[in-house]
Amino acid sequence: MELAEHACESVILYDLNGSIQYCNAASARLYGWAQADALGRRFDDLQVVGACQAPAWRSIVEAGGWRDGTLRRRSEAGEALIASVRLIVRSDATGRAQDVVEYSERAYGDAASAKQSDDTGRQERLAVWELDITGLDPFLDGDDAAPIAAASPPAISGERLEAMLAAVRVLDLNAEAMRLFGLPMDRDHLVTRSLGGLWPEQSQPVLSDLLLALASKTDGALERREISAAGWLDDVVLTGWRPRDPRCRGAVVVTISGKVNVGVALDELEARQNRYRNTLSTMPIPIFQVEAGDADKLVQRLLATEVTAGMGGMPTYVAQHPAFVDRIHEIVTVTDVNEQAMALMGATHRSQLTRPIDYFFSLAPEAGRRVFLAYCAGATSHVEEIKIRTLDGRLQDILFVVMFPGAGQRLYNTIVVMIDNTARLEAEIKFRRLEADFARAARLSTLGELTASIAHEIKQPISAMLINAETSLRWLARDEPNLAKVAQLAERIADSARHASDIINRIQDMAGKREPARAPLDLNEIVAQAVNFVRHDTDEKAIAVSLDLATDLPRVLGDRVQLQQVCVNLLVNSVQALMPAPPERREIRIATRLGDRGAVALSVRDTGPGIPDADLDRVFEGFFTTKTDGMGIGLAICQSIVSTHGGNIAVANHPEGGALFMITLPIMRKPGEAQPGRLMQDHLS
Fold this sequence. Notes:
- With about 675 residues, the chain is of the alpha+beta class.
- It is about 40% helix and about 25% strand.
- It is built from 23 helices and 22 strands.
């Protein structure tokens, strides 16, 4: 916590029960207490009941912190003060909360805060850097070992100066240091970087002199250097020392203090805003800048109430009060847009879009609620596809992306990106239609190969109907007709007709043009129907078909005809692969089982010659075939169908001979978790 001791803002460390474990010197100055006396006090002890009330401690811990807010607090002397406060919950590597860090300072506009400014309106600021200077050891030999006086001309310059600062690494820095030099407000991005590219060039010689002086020291004595200006600070003093902690060998702390030059600070702020606007306007995608500060305050007040915490959190509250999200959408406003956003929305002027964001969700109110709940849950971003109505009446499919500020940051720079998905989705629809036509062509091709089998299957019930009808006529032709026998034969005729009708319906399903329809399916039934389709072929060619179907197999969500097409195609391939084998070695083994991670598995194995190793990686490619009369679309269609069902299909040669096809499909209970690798290994072993 040594770095925190030199921070310009109050830093307080709480345990998860809200008890103070540490506070820095700035905290003691702000609240008027001795640091030792603050230990053990509770978060609630600092608060003044009434306006600007703090959120409940439990809600702070559960939410992962509290973004910038204004609280009315009580000093050690009992005086009320207004403080800007942010709280961040720190977690260990497993994500388990460890403690809570509070950063606070007097709010601008507080009477006591105004007294801290001098007559020119300039305030004292303090930027703090912690640096690793072990890389300076080689520079301590020779002329560079003797530090120069602050008023002397620089003794180090050029390549030597550049090499020295490149050898110094950043260990830590506070927010004031990042703001002072215009660095990205991303500590993790800056830590471990070399100092040379981060420090202003005009003061680098004085800084290097200070660091060399510290590198030659072994005690914690202070070193100071003065420069006229740094960033928007005048009368700048650089102060450095070595930490007393033995674990910090090679580390030094450097502070930058000075008076804020308001004119320079305002010019820099304006320059940054212009750079931000230029970046926004030149981005090649539609961008909306959104200001949500007022909404954040409303949410924080709601989270601070015990009733919300006791109701199960914000999702429950939103479900019971849907109008609350509508209210949020009315006070969250778009503050700026770029040209691409105007073109997307059909706007002719920015003022048409710089208004409350309720028009984002006019066609997708549930999406608006999901975005809001994602923010409340602490998400850094949220992405989903929605439909919007543009100002000129077009209906657009949009990829909607919201990027929330990180914990501890204000919501004034929330960014919304909209990417027009209309053309892509239309292309996908056309592709799916083409794919459906392609699959139908493959089914017709398969039916053509099964003509003899289909004819035989239909011939059986028709022959049975003919025999039973002729027998019925003979019974009716007797002098004393046996009506009971005729009725029995009529029932058989009806059964045979239903059987023939079922066969024709299956063929029509396979051959017809239809939209896929998902429903809960029994994979074992799909397999049995596919086996019936090829039964005549397998019997005629003396191929033994063995079934090992698991009982109580969970259902899958899928299209019956499509999955049946996959099974039939694999069986037809197996039949064709077995033709070179002698009849006594022709066998197809079909098995289903419950797989790993919420999947069911189907395997089809034949005892044929297998697939050449060089072709194993290509069998699912479109128009690849090893048959002289093959089209090469069957297995490609199989892979496409299985993929659209969230599953996987793989092929390998079994160690005992023949090809093994393995399919995994997610069960309805846990969709999307199928992994075929382990199952394939089980069947190969």
